[in-house]
Amino acid sequence: LLKWVRINPEEKKGNLFAATASVDLDEMASFARLKMERIQSDVREKETLAQKTIAERKYAAAVEALSRISVLMEPYPDLQKEYAVYKPLDNGLFFSSAEENISAELVQALKSVRISLSEKNRKLASGVPLEMEIFVQDKNGALPDFPIYVEHRGKRIAEAFSDSTGKILFRLSEKSLFESPYTLRFLAGIPLKYRQKAGISVQNGDYE
Q1: Predicted confidence (pLDDT) per residue in 41-91, tens digit
Q2: Mutual orientation of helices 25-55 and 59-73 as an angle, nearest 10°?
Q3: The pTM is what?
Q4: Which of 15, 25, 160, 180: CA 20 to 30 A from 147?
């Protein structure tokens, strides 16, 4: 608030200095409007990026862009209220994001994602990493740049992105692997809400 306060000196009264203060409401409103317009621009940029990355099958990047939209939109309602204190809201300041619709597009694309586990040798030996190979695909075939993470006993022990052929070779050397249960969980490395809505199942891999 002090930024918008103007001090207006007045004539000295005896040994005392006198001044009045005023608040520039137009500047305060202009600053609030500028912030809202900047948010609108940033949100539209992220929406375009999210749609582009969905089309390119870069689903993790789309998730990141959508999460940024939520963060960017957070202060917008308070800025509208602040502006309305000084001036009536005009049509240019009534703004809503297309995040919900784009999220629905992403979920639809994710519904075809499948995670499968190779049946290669899964024997655990002391001093030798346990190798587990994952293959990720969607309706268009092998899916690159898709994040998968590995859990054992409820703890995340590894995470990686699929290569250009949709494969990930995990080499696991956690000491906890020698403790039962001898089962690993392979999950899509995206938020739970997307996994659930898209029905991406968890793959369990047993080893000896």
Answers
A1: 999 999 999 999 999 999 999 999 999 999 999 999 999 998 898 889 999
A2: 170
A3: 0.81
A4: 180
